[in-house]
Amino acid sequence: MMCAALTRAQDLQDAGANPQGMADLLAKLKAYGDSVAKKPVPRLSDGKPDLSGVYNKVVRDIFQGAQPKPEYTAAGKAKWENVANEIDPVNQCNWPGVPRLMQEPDPFEIEMKPGKVIFLYEYMHNFRVVPTDGRPHPKDVPLSRAWLGDSVGHWEGDTLVIDTVGMNGLTRLDPMGHPKSEQAHIIEKYRRPRFDQLWYEVTVEDPKYYRQAFSQSATFPLTPPEWRLEEYACNENNQDSWVKGAH
Amino acid sequence: MHNPVRFRMTTFVQGIALAVFLMTPVFGHHSFSAEYDATQPVSLKNATVTKLEWTNPHTWVYVDFKNVNGEVEHWQCEGGAPNRLAREGWSRETLKPGDIVTIDGYKAKNGMNWCNSQTITLPDGKRVFAGSSGNGAPDSGQGKK
Predict the structure, then answer these.
(1) Are B98 and B107 in contact (CB under 8 A)?
(2) What ipTM goes with this model?
């Protein structure tokens, strides 16, 4: 297969080209993080850690480093092997869903309010408002929560846990095309171990496509105060709507 | 005084690094390899910008490029979305029709003069990353198969 001969252009850049713009960006993020790393993590009035901030993220393969190693069911394997024949929903500017929103690049913002957490995603201009008052999922998740599902949150000590169900089967787990069904139950955990770091763990439970649940964790850097979420108006001049596959 | 041995070692190491990258199965993101051919790099040297589409989900730079035969070819090259390019130093003023640029990237698989631009060398000589890849650190996925 051609895979071995293909190389991601980004890797070529890092190998030798070191274009000015990308190198400057990475250096700025790291320098900022180092400069504020020792500041105490702020707390809300109820004592919980304040996760508020704008963080940066990059393209991530949800299988990479996942524990236990993800194993497909027969249906999952068939779906994965057919990815090249299916149009990626984001190529038609459809929303990436959960957890793919967190596996895509572009910054995201967390704002905490009493009883709820607001997530704002530059990618696809999405947002989630997640209640953190401990309420359960509704017995019947409304059809109006099909792309991002129904999310409810609660605290376990200093860890914010977000539970999501009820999504349609029209999205993928990540940019690589790993399959996701309407049975997907996604559990996310958020912590702020350091002023400039957001620790994140996602657990995927999807018995239609995977034999057992698996988890992946990552750390996202806090961005400097001058960063703000920009627009991403996907429909504006989309010329990829016919493109199949994932990569 | 030259140190020819050290120069050769550095070039050798860089060559190995490049070879390793070329052999590593990769992830393009957002259907790069469905549309573009990483085995067909292009370098449009001293091309004249005719139009700039500063749009989502990809920006497009249109250039007239004079090939080795002296014929003018019309090319359009895809770049990252405005949100990503803005963080990599681009502004609406970065490129204008009439600017002379060099675009380095990969040819499209559709048989037309389209490319996915990775870097663009601007009129002042500055090189900017123009690719559609996510900003931040490179993703480190395993090959699909």
Answers:
(1) no
(2) 0.76
Determine the pLDDT at residue B89.
77
pTM: 0.81
Q: Which residue has the higher pLDDT, B86 or A164?
A: A164
Q: Does A93 touch chain B (CB under 8 A)?
A: yes
The sheet that has A197-205: what strands, in order across it? A150-156, A159-165, A185-194, A197-205, A214-221
pLDDT above 80 (res A232)? yes
Domain membership of residue A231 (yes or no) is: no
Give me the residue from A61, A93, A231 closest to B27, CB to CB. A61
Tens digits of residue pLDDT in A33-84: 999 999 999 999 999 999 999 999 988 999 999 999 999 999 999 999 999 8
> Alpha-carbon distance B112 to B89, whole Å?
29
In a domain, B18, yes or no: no
Which range of residues forms the domain containing residue B76?
27-129
Q: A25–B86: do the CB atoms touch at under 8 Å?
A: no
Strands B114-121 and A108-113: unpaired
